[in-house]
């Protein structure tokens, strides 16, 4: 098994930090603080960074921090701005453009105002799925799993909404 697969969590975290413009030393410090004795070496991070730098710029751009003025570039209509800004405020850390795109997509399925945490959780799951596909093809969930979960959650919201209006 490759070291990248052994350290998949650190690898993806390093990628996200790289996409956000962080350098090797900063990435090492963050991973070292989080994973302590299990953290990868500075040399490993250097090898990962070489790999990240070969990725298409438009792919990496989706994993940079979401910037409202780029909504159109992300495929998010301006009409969704109010919703996006209110949902993005719920994040403890700035989400990526990829995550924002999933938030918008999922928000179109149901009224999540009573359960924004579920919408954000689903958006994170879809985001992580895409990132896993980028690097190793092995994913925690399949799209079928994710779609089923989204359908269950949105159906429950619509049922609750129907009960409130009756």
Can you walk me through this structure?
The protein has 166 residues and is an all-alpha fold. It contains ten helices and no strands. The protein is globular, with a radius of gyration of 18 Å.
Q: What does the overall shape look like?
A: globular
Helix content: 55-70%
Please count the beta strands (DSSP E, at least 2 residues each). Answer: 0
Number of H/I helices = 10
Order of helices and strands: HHHHHHHHHH
Number of discrete domains: 2
End-to-end CA span? 56 Å
Structural class: mainly alpha
Major beta-sheet overview: none
Uncertain regions spanning at least 5 consecutive residues:
none
Amount of beta strand: under 5%
CA-atom Rg in angstroms: 18 Å
Mean pLDDT: 88
Oligomerization state: single chain
Short description:
This protein is mainly α and 166 residues long. It has 2 domains: 3-54; 68-165, no CATH class. The protein contains 10 helices and no strands.
SSE blueprint:
Layout (H helix, E strand, L loop, with lengths): L2 H4 L1 H12 L4 H12 L6 H12 L3 H5 L9 H4 L6 H8 L8 H11 L8 H20 L7 H23 L1
Helix pairs in contact: 2-3, 2-4, 3-4, 7-8, 8-9, 9-10
Features:
single chain; 166 residues; mainly alpha; 10 helices; 67% helix; globular
